[in-house]
Each structure stands twice: as C-alpha cells, then as structure tokens.
Amino acid sequence: MKRCLIAMSAVCLFIAGCMHENKQQAPEPKSISVETPKQQEAPKQRQVFPLTGLPAEGAVNRRVIAVMVNNHPKARPQSGLQKADIVYEVLAEGDITRFLALYQSEFPEKVGPVRSARDYYIELSNGYHALYVCHGWSPEAKAMLETGMSDYLNGLFYDGTLFKRVSFRKAPHNSYITFANIEKGAAMEGYSLQDNVAPLPFRADAPKGERADQIDIIYSHRSYAQVRYKYVADQKSYFRYSAGEQTVDYDTREPVKIQNVLVIAAKHLVIDSAGRRSIDLSSSGSGYLFQNGIVKQVEWKNVDGRILPYENGAPAGLMPGKTWINVVPDLNIVQW
C-alpha cells in the first residue's frame, strides 16, 4: 500500500511537471500590425507665367507694367524691349509706330526711350489691368487718365526724378525709367504691384500650315517704317528688324526673340491736324498668326480688352514664349 501511494505521487508529480513545461513553452500570440493607408498627395500643378506660358520659379502674381516706348529712328535701338512678354506695335502720327511693352515675367533694369500716351494704347493696357507708364499725353489720353481709367506714372510730373534724361539723345527721344523707379513711383502713388493676371491661351502642339520664314510689314514706302521678322528654326524664334537693322537692346546688344507674331487689321482714322489717330480695336477683324515659321489666317477678337486670335471660332493657342502684335490699317501691307 505504501509503495502504491509513492508510485501514484510520482505519477502526479510527473504530470504536473509536464503541464508546467507545456505552459512555459506555449508560444505567445503574435501582434498583427495594421498599416494605415497613406493619403496620396495631389501632384503639384506646374506654375507658369500667365503671359508667356513658360515655367515660373518665383511669384506669378506680379502686376503687369505697360510702358510706352518710342520707335522714332532717332530712338533706336531701344532699351528693355527684349524682356517684354508682349509688345503691341501701332501707328501713332504719320508713318511712325510706337510700342506698348508689357512686362510681367521679367523686368529689364531700365526701359526707354519713354514716349507719350494715346487713348488706344491705354485701352490695350487696361486689358491687362496694367500700371501704365508714359511721358506726355494726347488730349484724349489725358482725359482718360485724369478721370481714373488707369493707374499711371507720367514723366510730365516726374521729369528728372523718376524719369531720367540721357545725354546721348535729344528730347523727346531721351527719357528713360528704371524698374526700381517704377516700383518707387507706384509706392508713392499708392498703386499695388500685385495682381492675379488671367492667363493667355497656349498650345502644346506645333502648328501646321503654309511656310513663312520671313515676314515684311510695310507701314510706309520709307525704309524706317518697314518691319521684318525672320524665323530661325534652331532657336524657334523670330528676330525683328527695322529698316534692315536688327532690333537689339541698346545696352546689352541682346536681340529681341519672339515666338508669336500676330498681325491684325483695324480701322484707322486721322482725327486732327497733328495726324493723331482713332483706331478701332473693339470690333473683330482679320489677321495673320505666325508661329514656328508657319502662317495661318485668323480672326481677331477683343476679349475683355485683349486682342486674341481665333481659328474656326475657337481661340488659336499661342506658342509658349513672347508675343508681338502688329496693328495695321490693311493686311495688304503684309508680305511673306
């Protein structure tokens, strides 16, 4: 009996030991980590300048600055035209054209010679809500600016301060302004230099059509009033010439390089003995659009003050880059 009890105790101890060992060896349950799905960031939209369609590294909300630039033969070569996003070339008096240069993506150190205002240039400037810079004005332009139709800086009131006369040219072909002084003048007048500029329509594909590597615009039989654009394929740019001389910057000799040349016909009417004109830029009309050495006949429309080309009723996109717009009384003076 005693032996039996001892044997039973041994068996119980063995079983208890095995149970304890199994309890110790039982694997701990593994913790399951559930990954929270990451929210995908929306791709950043590429920032481009609104008037050129070119990539922008810095701010794109700068206000457009519109400067009246002299194109008299005695004012050539000018300063700062190569930096303009858009340039309008329109007849002033006689057979002399004048430039309205619009700056938004980049600014030259200075621009000039600065010339006097005309009403139709103010209308074009207002299409971009630009700060308008001039030196002098016609009676019609004076009335428009004095009634507050546009923010402006006029050299008549800042001659020798914001506007400087150069010694190597004679008046009225010698007034210049730096962009530092434009900023200073805007601050003095309380004008904002920030603006959300509505973008122009641009195209990504190459245009197709008739070749036109050279464009001639004959404003007059006089050579100084004759304009030529030459397309250089390896630079994808048009180079501009007046009276056979290439249009370059006076200080840097950098040439004007253009990606879009738009020529439009608008009604011109001489309104006074000084030869000043009224030009109808409100109605639509016909024109030619030159891009990549190709020409297309287009219709132009004034859309909220901007002259834009249309093809088959839809906006004809611009090539990214700089645009020059020549306003002529008749398309017959355009050849290629």
List keywords for this structure.
5 helices; twelve-stranded mixed beta sheet; 336 residues; disordered N terminus; YerB-like fold; six-stranded antiparallel beta sheet; 16% helix; signal; alpha+beta
Structure description:
- Pfam families: DUF3048, DUF3048_C.
- This is Lipoprotein YerB.
- This protein has a single domain, classed as YerB-like fold (3-Layer(bba) Sandwich).
- Helix content is 16%, strand content 31%.
- The longest helix has 24 residues.
- The strands form 4 sheets. Strands 1, 2, 3, 5, 6, 9, 15, 18, 19, 20, 21 and 22 form a 12-stranded mixed beta sheet that branches.
- The protein contains 5 helices and 23 strands.
- The N terminus is likely disordered.
- It has 336 residues and is α+β, with helices and mostly antiparallel strands.
- The protein starts with a helix and ends with a strand.
Query: Which outline best applies?
Result: globular
What is the name of the CATH superfamily? Answer: YerB-like
According to CATH, what is the topology? YerB-like fold
* The CATH class: Alpha Beta
Summarize the SSE layout with pairings.
Blueprint (H helix, E strand, L loop, with lengths): L1 H24 L39 E6 L15 E6 L5 E7 L6 E2 L7 H8 L4 E4 L4 H8 L5 E3 H4 L4 E3 L9 E4 H11 L20 E2 L2 E5 L7 E7 L4 E6 L2 E2 L10 E2 L1 E6 L2 E3 L6 E3 L5 E7 L2 E10 L2 E6 L2 E2 L7 E6 L5 E2 L1
Parallel strand pairs: 1-5, 2-22, 5-6, 15-22
Antiparallel strand pairs: 1-3, 2-3, 4-8, 7-8, 9-19, 10-11, 10-23, 11-12, 12-13, 12-14, 15-18, 16-17, 18-19, 19-20, 20-21
